[in-house]
Write a structure and sequence with these properties.
single chain, 65 residues, 6-stranded antiparallel sheet
């Protein structure tokens, strides 16, 4: 078996690991997704029943006039 073609995933609490490194961190407001050496936060908008209706990506590069 060629191990370079396969990834090892793990889950502990709200943290997802990919080949032993943290890949995604989940919490009650959304999740942080690894993007290179940093994490990009995504906020979940939920309805009154707790269902996710939309996810908004936090972008520090956005500027308002």
């Amino acid at each position: 078996m060629n191990s370079s073609r396969y990834s090892k995933f793990g889950y502990v609490g709200g943290i997802e690991y990919n080949n032993g490194a943290i890949d995604i961190i989940h919490n009650s407001e959304g999740y942080a997704l690894k993007n290179g050496t940093t994490y990009v936060y995504h906020y979940n908008l939920i309805d009154h029943l707790g269902n996710v209706r939309a996810t908004i990506k936090d972008s520090s590069r956005c500027r308002t006039a």
